[in-house]
Design brief:
Layout (H helix, E strand, L loop, with lengths): L9 H9 L8 H17 L1 H20 L5 H8 L2
Helix pairs in contact: 2-3
């Protein structure tokens, strides 16, 4: 995979940082999520509103610490 560098205003970087679901989430991951949501907004606006709402709810749960780690889920699922 090739990589590139892009210039962002400080304000833009701060906005992107606010979308992070976890500290080490890369800007590539963030931008791919934003692109996914934007594309779906055009194709299926009624589903997009629901998706955005679900993402916001998930982000709140994560910030509150109300989630399972990968190891916890493996235990629950017996994997």
């Amino acid at each position: 995979m090739s990589e590139t560098t892009i210039k962002l205003r400080s304000e833009t970087k701060m906005e992107l940082d606010s979308f992070r679901e976890y500290m080490n989430e890369s800007y590539d991951e963030l931008l791919r999520k934003i692109i996914f949501v934007a594309k779906n907004c055009k194709k299926k606006p009624e589903l997009s509103a629901k998706t955005i709402e679900e993402i916001e709810m998930a982000r709140k749960r994560i910030k509150q610490g109300s989630f399972y780690t990968e190891d916890e889920m493996k235990k629950r699922l017996g994997i």
